[in-house]
Amino acid sequence: MLSTVARQLKNHPALIPLFFFIGGGATMSMMYLARLAFRNPEVCWDRKNNPEPWNKMEPTQQYKFVAVNMDYSKLKKNGPDF
């Protein structure tokens, strides 16, 4: 299969950017899914030690990927500690 792809790329060099951008898009989407799985506070992988990780977050901790016009350092906690 790899030789078929190499032969096609040799015969049609205009396909090289297509392979490059499709591969880059697939890589970035997998990296984003991995970030969501490991950094998102709603995801809990360890149910014994920390069953509710969202309760241990500080109010000044940024967990969103992009925060437009939001200064997390000035936020204060409104609710009680659990």
Output the keywords:
single chain, 82 residues, mainly alpha, 2 domains, 2 helices, 41% helix, elongated
Task: Give an overview in words.
About 40% of the residues lie in helices and about 0% in strands. By secondary structure, it is an all-alpha fold. The protein folds into 2 domains: about 1-40; about 45-75, no CATH class. It is elongated, with a radius of gyration of 22 Å. It is found in: Mitochondrion inner membrane. One of its GO terms (cellular component) is mitochondrial inner membrane. Keywords: Electron transport, Membrane, Mitochondrion, Mitochondrion inner membrane, Respiratory chain, Transmembrane, Transmembrane helix, Transport. It holds the Pfam family B12D.
Domain count: the total is 2
Mean pLDDT, nearest integer?
80
The major beta sheet can be summarized as: none
Uncertain parts:
none
Record field, number of beta strands: 0
State the end-to-end distance. 57 Å
Please provide a brief summary of the model:
This protein is an all-alpha fold. It is built from two helices and no strands.
